[in-house]
Amino acid sequence: MKLAGRARLRRAVALLGGLVVSSSLLPGPAQATPDAVPAVAPAAVAAAPCSAGYIALTFDDGPSKTQTPRLVQILKDRRVPATFFMVGSRVDSAPAAGRLVAREGFVVGNHTWSHPQLPSLSDGAVHKQLVDTGMAFRRARIPHSRLMRPPYGAIDARVRRDIAQVHLTPVLWTVDSRDWTGGTSGQIADRILRQLRPHQRNVVLQHDGINNSPNSVGAVPIVIRKARQRGFCFADLDDDARIHLPSARSIIPSLGSGAPGPGALFAPAGAQGAGRSAPSAPTAPSPRSKVRVAAFDPFFALR
Ligand SMILES: [Zn+2]
User: Fold this and answer.
1) From the CA of 283, how far away is ligand 1's center (Å)?
2) Which member of 111, 144, 207, 244 is catalytic?
3) 147 CA distance to ligand 1 centroid (A)?
4) pLDDT tens figures, 248-289
5) CATH topology for 53-252+277-301?
6) Quick check: is 60 catalytic?
7) Where are the domains of the chain?
8) Ramachandran region of residue 2, left (φ > 0), alpha (ψ -120 to 50) or beta?
9) 3 state SS of 273
10) Are 134 and 168 in contact, with CB atoms under 8 Å apart?
11) Which carries the bigger pLDDT value, residue 129 or residue 285?
């Protein structure tokens, strides 16, 4: 197995490092100078790019005038694509922050107008939540995808039909950062990193529009660095919620050249999930996450 081999290599490197350090403690001419100690940087044992598969970062409940631009800069600097599920009423309040997301080439999805539990609404009210948000995107001149994320992951067969009627695709998540429960950036990053699964569908849920978003956004550079060391690459989601193959530049950041024009950063590479089995149906939330989100409302906590 590759992984076993890598673990052996890591142990061998650690052992070698230990031997050099030990020998440097010995007196006499054999003593190693600090220059002779090999630097065992994490990069020395980093996995090959994308050898562990892909991660789609998603951010809900924005746009926020403060956290969304900060997040965009972090992602842009590291050439990481991502998907933003925006709340329509917030697009109306912070249209420039929303526009920035789209202008930098990130995928924008619909997260309803006012973040209700959709199953508790009538068909007409569900329809209005989605259409009003589409109109907010239009007013703010924000190009958007067909993706939508039901608030709290709350969805049933009837709501699913309502969503399909307005030609949107619901998308949930597989990795819950639980950033709304609190935690430092390091703690949030650890929660995410622990849940990543090589060669599985990794769709991470974070928020750029809640009280703890400063810490959640602060977790993003840690997640990117450590996940890349483990061989993950980052991708966004296509209109059918499939993991969308990233451009070569987002896999190998050094391929990038300065600042490309609007929308050019994460231009589709042409291939759509080729060679990978990516389910087109959104992944159902765990029952646990349903209970959790029903018990606390991160969206309204922001106010
Ligand atoms: Zn939300």
Assistant:
1) 16
2) 207
3) 14
4) 555 555 444 333 333 333 323 333 333 333 333 333 333 333
5) TIM Barrel (3.20.20)
6) yes
7) 53-252+277-301
8) alpha
9) coil
10) no
11) 129
Question: 115 catalytic, yes or no?
Answer: no
3-state secondary structure of 237: strand
Residue 194 CA to ligand 1 centre (angstroms)? 22
Lookup result for tokens 């646990």? 288
Answer yes or no: are the C-beta atoms of 171 and 149 closer than 8 Å.
Answer: yes
Say how far apart CA 243 and CA 278 lie, in whole Å: 7
Q: 45: which residues sit within 8 A by CB, 6+ positions away?
A: 6, 9, 10, 13
Taking the model in full, what pTM does it have? Answer: 0.71
User: How close is the Cα of 14 to the center of ligand 1, in Å?
Assistant: 44
Q: Say if residue 24's pLDDT is above 50.
A: no
pLDDT at 273: 33
**Is 55 strand, coil or helix?**
strand
With a pLDDT cut of 70, the percent of the chain lying above it is 66
Task: Tell me what the mean pLDDT of segment 108-118 comes to.
Answer: 98
Which residues, by Cβ under 5 Å, contact ligand 1, an ion?
60-61, 151
Measure 163 CA to ligand 1 centroid, in angstroms: 16
